[in-house]
Specification:
Elements: H1 34-52, E1 57-58, H2 60-67, H3 71-78, E2 85-86, E3 90-92, H4 93-103, E4 110-115, H5 119-127, E5 135-142, E6 151-152, E7 155-159, H6 163-169, E8 174-177, H7 184-194, E9 198-201, H8 209-212, E10 215-218, H9 221-239
Parallel strand pairs: 4-5, 4-8, 5-7, 8-9, 9-10
Antiparallel strand pairs: 1-3, 2-3, 6-7
């Protein structure tokens, strides 16, 4: 395997990689376990970096080192993607990336709206994080008169009161929530009415699928920071 630079680097546009335009290998007709699904984004990110560095084949041990997943577990995980590994050759990076991309919906070109144009909302839009994973944010909404009408990147912030109408007139799959906790009760009814398929929730209050009428992924960055601090404290206690 040859590497030019850090394999975790991602290109600006997922469609700049030829693999995304190809059809993936046939997918097995089986349910992928939740534990495997949680590791897929890690594989996806690593494989994208490899392709960006012109690495076209890789062994399971090399991929294990890059992803931090045990080699035996990694081989077992990747069996769900159609026998893409060959003894003595390893994995075809392009085919494996394409297969996992399809499983993760990267090729579906989902559309989204972002609700909450505060610091976090602006950071998400400016980072292009969504576009790199096949999600395009088409509009931004907020309830604050001081924010409505302002521009974030190339998007003008609209009044959240216009959200229902926008979703009726435009295909919108996902809601990205960056709202304060006190806005939850006011917005949940609107969110259900809009018929989103998924909700990416950065708000301080956790939602479940029933709350939103859609699949929900709750994100709390503070939890990961707390976990880090705990591990640091444990290390200090052991040294004492």
């Amino acid at each position: 395997m040859r590497k030019k630079q850090n394999v975790q680097e991602e290109p600006d546009d997922i469609y700049s990689i030829p693999a995304i335009a190809d059809r993936a290998v046939s997918q097995p007709e089986c349910v992928i376990p939740e534990a495997v699904v949680k590791r897929l984004p890690r594989y996806f990110r690593c494989l994208r970096g490899l392709l960006n560095n012109d690495v076209m084949k890789i062994s399971s041990s090399e991929l294990s080192d890059l992803t931090g997943v045990n080699a035996a577990q990694l081989r077992q995980d990747l069996k769900y993607f159609g026998g893409l590994g060959q003894r003595g050759y390893g994995y075809n990076v392009k085919k494996l990336y394409t297969s996992i991309s399809e499983q993760l919906g990267v090729t579906k070109k989902y559309t989204a709206v972002l609700i909450g144009a505060g610091n976090l909302g602006r950071a998400i839009i400016n980072s292009r994080l969504c576009e790199q994973r096949g999600v395009w944010i088409k509009a931004v909404f907020d309830g604050s008169p001081s924010v409505i009408g302002k521009e974030i990147g190339d998007r003008k912030v609209s009044d959240v009161a216009e959200l229902r109408r926008f979703c009726r007139e435009n295909k919108t799959d996902i809601a990205v929530l960056c709202i304060p906790a006190d806005a939850k009760s006011e917005l949940l009814g609107i969110i259900k009415d809009c018929g989103f398929k998924g909700v990416w929730n950065f708000s301080p209050c956790e939602l479940d699928d029933c709350d939103a009428g859609a699949k929900v992924e709750n994100i709390c960055t503070g939890d990961s920071l707390s976990a880090l601090l705990y591990r640091m404290c444990e290390d200090e206690r052991e040294k004492e």
